[in-house]
Amino acid sequence: MARPVLEMRSISKTFPGVKALSEVNLTVAAGEVHALCGENGAGKSTLMKVLSGVHPYGSYDGEIRFEGEPCRFRDIRSSEQRGIVIIHQELALVPYLSVAENIFLGNEHATRGFISWRRTLTHAAALIRQVGLDESPHTRIADLGVGKQQLVEIAKALAKKVKLLILDEPTAALNDEDSRKLLDLILALKAQGVSCILISHKLNEIARVADAVTVLRDGRTVETLAVGSEGVCEELIIRGMVGRDLEHRYPERTPEIGEVAFEIEDWTVLHPIDQRRKVVDGVSLNVRRGEIVGVAGLMGAGRTELAMSVFGRSYGRWTGGRVRLHGREIRTRTVPEAIGHGIAYVTEDRKQLGLDLDDDISRNITLSSLGKVARRGWVDRHEEARVAESFRQSMNIKAPSVFTRTGKLSGGNQQKVVLSKWIFAEPEVLILDEPTRGIDVGAKAEIYTVVADLAARGATVLLISSELPELLGLCDRIYAMAEGRITGELSRAEATQESLMRLMTMSAASPDKQV
Amino acid sequence: MAQTETTPDTTPPAPEPRRPPSAGAVLARALRGNLRQYGMLVALGLIVVLFQFWTDGILLQPLNITNLIQQNGYILILAIGMMIVIIAGHIDLSVGSLAAFVGAAAAVMTVEHHLPWPVAVAAALLIGALAGAWQGFWIAFLGIPSFIVTLAGMLLFRGGTQILLQGQSVAPFPKGFQNISSGFLPEVGPSTDYHNLTLLLGLAVLAVAILQEVRGRRRAASYGLEPLPAGLFLAKLAAITAAVVAFTLLLASYHGVPIVLLVLGVLLVGFGYVMRNSILGRHTYAVGGNEAAARLSGVKSKRVVFLAFVNMGVLAALAGLVFAARLNAGTPQAGINFELEAIAAAFIGGASASGGVGTVLGALTGGLVLGVLNNGMSLVGVGTDYQQVIKGLVLLAAVGFDVYNKRKAGT
């Protein structure tokens, strides 16, 4: 191995109540492209935040050495001064400033506080050529597609004399063409001596550009693999990424599965802004009565987008597809229509999309079905409080009373309130999106029981989850999605973490390389 | 409904046996929990006491109280509508101009075209509704920020007023119309030293208020809430009784209940009930509190916002009528800065700048805080220059206090 440019040794980072990283090691050789892999929540982002100074020195344990010298970064600025630049998935560009202005934002060519436009524009033009961007330095960022914006970010990094470039899922939002260009650029920069850490889920991408792969799982380094000329051994990466402990007990179920109740056929959705991107691409799936069907997939696979689009076209632009309930086609063009047909969607983002945090438990629970506690448009508050109280007890929501503001509750209890809201709506089809994200073990177990119970009563459950053990523990059947498409369907008996991960990392661009 | 029996893995720890908390602790907690609700009522009380003292008792004289109500009626009406718009997460800058426009229209209809005044009132309210629908359309269905749409409306309706009146005041209104602002409940029954209908009305209000309190307390117990201890509860009832009786006697010893107060009472009870208990009211809070979550719960958020503006239009029209009636003229200069007073009233009364929070009672309380400050400072002889400075500071302090408390409480 060549001389290391970066060494991170036994990095540990604790958030209140959670150990995000424990004793993580990462070594990047000079001039190499180093891929970082791991499931959602494995600690990749936290590790990069430690490296870039977002989590400053002192807030973590362990040692960072860059170019042989120990580093104690206080903030992003101090890590950038050393030449470590991170490009996040959500790009940090100002839409109404020009390409040149963005490239030198916070790093301006200036004399006594006044910008030197001559130097700015010459330098910008040179950087734009270097990253292969075919645009004028005067173009506004808002007029560029995501792919080109990504290149501007890289130009911005180059302007800071980057030595180690960190890219967080750079191709997640790009189409195939733009992805290819970006990967080429990474290789070109490597030839110029820029080292790179590439966070990615796409194994074919890693095989193409990376020299080595480090796999993280549950905040620990699992292994570092060299990528040989024949490509990385994908089996090894997959095995490293999964293998999470089956730490939870799942409720015993003897599913009574009936006829097909809910079907999605050939559903296609375009990205709301970049209409060339198919976020959901011809997805078909079905769920039977009393069945719990899982949808596995990594970040950006299009699972949430699929669910929200089916639920009243709440995401993106629908371009085709049908929904059937008991064999009859139904319209779900608005949320009230979807609810009217007995569909409920429990969001993955309870704070932004699930709850009115200013309002109390009772009013949040009844919001989607106020008609059930009202007569002729008038809410019976006594009945409402009674309903809410019965949910507080049956769901074990820990709060002084049903008049407690939901903003004061813990994540697990907030999730129980959202779930109560939709159980109260008595849906036939319940779509759960990451129902246990960020909640404690006890609350998780309670939610599993509730979901199993609903299925036992004949509800049809579609469970979107990034936790493979959860899918394996609860589901009767699991679909896997990658890049907007269904890449496979496994029965409970067939499914393992490895087989699912293989489907989840299958790239649409080159499906033949996998499996 | 679907009830789910869960068998939790973790049983919550048994609650520790508690001693009944002291009355002071309960009072402190009740105040803390409902700071937004009660804080301003208490502040209003303090301001009243302060000025009663400073003005050597003039503030609470029957004549002055009646004046206070008639002077502030239109702002209070606007504040109710504004509160609802702010709860829905928007703002309306056009209400002062709209009120002027409607007043002008009413003047033109009754004075120049000799329409019967009830017809003019109905037409005026309709104009308000249409103006509100116009603005609501742009805001709710086309997604143009309410700040912009109503800023445009402010100019539109102000210009419309001047066009309608051709720069002149149009006066006087018929007597019946003037009564909207300056009238009182009629004298009936045997001659006493007091206004009889007012006494009856006060008695009715007292009875209903006490009934509500008792029912509320009984219900609180059935929800598993800790009710106020009996002693405190009785004290609260006594305070309510004293306030209602004192206020009734004050008004009854002069001309009785002004028509404006009656209108305000109806609006307070009506809108208070709608906002608390109707599906539409609930949806308004939800849309303002978290629009995305409301939409994903099946709330037709555009419709809710549209209706909030239609309602604001009607209330602005009503305020315009009351103001025109008080002035006994439609004038091009009517309603200037009313929108600012109404917005200030709503925020002093506990509205949140991000929407989703506030009560109709709060809007009235906030409006009265401003009204009493105006009236009291004028009586004491503070010039309008300093009055504005003080009102500005009060607004800042009220909202700042609120933000501080919210932060301390954590989200």
Characterization of this structure:
Chain B: It is a multi-pass membrane protein. Chain B: Part of the binding-protein-dependent transport system for D-xylose. Probably responsible for the translocation of the substrate across the membrane. Chain B: Its main location: membrane. The complex is a heterodimer of chains A (515) and B (411). Chain A has 17 helices and 24 strands. With 515 residues, chain A is an alpha/beta fold. Chain A starts with a strand and ends in an 11-residue tail after the last helix. Chain B has 411 residues and is mostly helical. Chain B has 16 helices and no strands. Chain B has helices at 23-33, 35-54, 62-87, 95-112, 117-141, 146-165, 175-182, 196-222, 230-252, 259-277, 279-289, 291-296, 301-327, 338-348, 360-380, 384-409. Chain B is globular and about 65 Å long. The interface between A and B is large, with 56 and 42 residues.
Salient structural properties:
heterodimer, A: 515 residues, alpha/beta, six-stranded mixed β-sheet, 17 helices, 24 strands, B: 411 residues, mainly alpha, 16 helices, disordered N terminus, ATP binding (chain A), cell membrane (chain A), transport (chain A)
Mean pLDDT of chain B: 88
- What's the helix-strand series of chain B? HHHHHHHHHHHHHHHH
- Give the DSSP E fraction of chain B (strand runs of 2 or more residues): under 5%
N- to C-terminal distance of chain B: 32 Å
Radius of gyration of chain A: 25 Å
Could you name the ranges of chain B where pLDDT drops below 50 across 5 or more consecutive residues? 1-18
Unreliable residue stretches of chain A: 510-515
Query: Measured on Cα atoms, how large is the radius of gyration of chain B?
Result: 23 Å
Oligomer: heterodimer
Q: Rough shape of chain B?
A: globular
Q: Count of DSSP helices of chain A? A: 17
Biggest sheet of chain A, in brief? Answer: 6 strands, mixed
Structural class of chain A: alpha/beta
Major beta-sheet overview of chain B: none
Helix run count of chain B: 16
Strand content of chain A: 25-35%
Strand arrangement across the biggest beta sheet of chain A: 6-9-10-3-11-12
Q: How many β-strand stretches of chain A?
A: 24
Name the largest protein-protein interface in this structure.
Answer: A-B, 56 and 42 residues
Pfam family, one (chain B): BPD_transp_2
Region (Disordered) (chain B): 1-22
Membrane topology (chain B): Multi-pass membrane protein
Function (chain B): Part of the binding-protein-dependent transport system for D-xylose. Probably responsible for the translocation of the substrate across the membrane.
